[in-house]
Structures are given as structure tokens and as C-alpha cells.
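User: My collaborator sent over this chain with a note saying "see what the structure looks like." That's all I know about it. Can you take a look?
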Amino acid sequence: MFDASIKQIVKAHFPGETLDKAVRMQGGVSADVYKLQLSAEGAPARDLVLRIHGQTHGGHPAGLEFQLLQFAYDAGLPVQTPVLVDTSCTHLPAPYLIVSYVDGTTEISEGNLDETLGVMARVMFALHATSTKALPDLPERTDPIPDLIGFLPSTEENQAFRAWLEALKSAPYAGALVPLHGDFWPGNLVWQGDCLAAILDWEDAAIGDPLSDVACTCLELRYLFGGAVMQRFADAYRAHAPIDPERLTLWLAYVSAAALRYMGDWRLAPDREAHMRKEALATLKEARTALGTQSGMTLTVHLDGNQIGKDGVGADGSEIEIGHIGMANMDVFTEIIGQRFRVIISEHGS
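Assistant: Without extra context I'll predict from the sequence alone. Here is the result:
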């Protein structure tokens, strides 16, 4: 479809070079990605990558993605070399950027998994430790609760959890905002042997809470290797920076609920999607349990004619058991929810 246009791109941006081959690359969901082979007289052939932001693109615009890549490259992070960006729509009906091609594999072997997780954690922390002074303006990702409430599947097992989240309202990040990749999963990591050679696809980058990145990677690793590997990656990251377990659990609930909401748009094979849904649901269930069993007290709310009752959690005048509330959240939770409901705290332990 784009063959003639790609030739025009090469002619316009790389005079003296010839397009020998353009091969569509697999894996792109929101961008059309091509590997270009260029040659020039008296010089060896070279490979570049063309990323076209078409109508289905859902991430950052091409100009911002290029700025992000330049930021990461200048910071010494392992990324593709940014070459150029064109938002004029002169040669294609969509903006595009061109970057270097990095040879390697995105496959991760279970044979040296702990070493691989260690490298991933170290590189992720290096990103999070990078100064934000040269970072372009990005959306903030600091509080999992507001979007989590929207992402949460409307099922009976989530009713009490939703009520707990709605009462808590927010869990803002109190630390310094850090650069976030936003999609740090194995498919976006190119390996050359034991070396992480490139982090791909910066279109979901943000600034905010580093544990949002950690949670995303944990879930993606679970899809591939099972639930135990999530903790192994978290432990690897903890070697570089402290982790608040309750906050990480909130972000795990966020990323698993978001995955369940949007997975149908990822063009997955049916069996792959079924597997990932199963693991995301398990992660969400584990998060609900963990957030509800960190103290030995159970919170029961008496409903007196309010929106939660009307939404089906309970009828007016009834009582619902919210579940075990973490001690760190108990005071603020009862203060907030007590403004709307009659709160009863049971004396029994977990």
C-alpha cells in the first residue's frame, strides 16, 4: 500500500540512497512499522525503521514520540537512534518517524530468567532515575484509583472493592515524579545476548509514580511465566529502590483492570487473549484480597439512601461488609466514608 510513498520518503530525506527493500514488521498495534533497507554507491547497506502513525494510532503524536526517543537517547538509555520526524503529511497521509534498526530478539529464555529480570529492573530504574529537566510535557500517572474505578469490571465480586475505592477516592503519589515508559513489556525489549540493546515504543510514556511501570511489567511477565515471576521482578526492582507493597498492589489492580477493559483491541489470537484474561483476572483477585487482608478488622457500612445503595451494592438501610481494611488506610477511610454512611468496625481478626 505504501511502497510508492516509502520510495518518495527515502528520496526526500536520504538523497543519494536507494530503497532496496521495505518489509512490514510484526507486532505493531497502533502504528504501521516497516524495516527499510537502504544502500548508496560505495557504502554498505543500512537498515532503518519507519513508524507511521495512522488512523488507529492511540499513543502520543509522532512529534512527541520523537522528542521522547531523543530524551532517552541523550540520557544514555538503550534505545533506537532517532533519525527524523515528519508531521507535514506531504509524503504520506499520516505523520511518521524514522529511527535506527536494532537487531536482536524480544524472546526471553527461562534458562537465565533471574539474570534477565535483574537487567530489566536495573534499566527500568535507570530510566526512573533520569532527570526530568529535558523531558517534554507529558501526562501525569500518579494515582491509580480514579481510573481503576472506571476500568473495574462490573461484577458481583468487585462490588465491595469498588465501594472501598470510591470511598477512598484517591491515592496520590507523594514522591518526586519520574519518567515512565508506560509499556515496558518483553515485546518492547530487544536483546543481544544478555544485553538489553533497545527499549522500543515510547508512545505511552508519562511522568509519575515509578510503581506504575513496575506493575505493568509484573503483569506482562505473568502472562509469559506465571504469577511467581511477578514477585521476582518486584524483588529485582527493590534492589534499586524501595517498594510500598500496598501501593504496588493498587497499581497491579489498575493494570489488570485496564488490560481486561482494552485487551479486545490488541488483535490477539483467541487462545492468547483467553490466557491473558485469565491471568489478569487472577491478578485482580489477588490484589483485592491483599488490599483487604492487611489488618485484622472488617469494615461494615450501613447504607442510608445514597448512590452506592442505588448502584446495587446494597439496598437503603442494609449493611454490606467492605472487607478487611489495611491499618494504614483505616483512619482516613472511616473519616471519608463516615461522612456518608454509618460505619461499624467488627472486632474479629483475620
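A starting point for your reply to your collaborator: Confidence is low (pLDDT under 50) at residues 293-328, 340-350.
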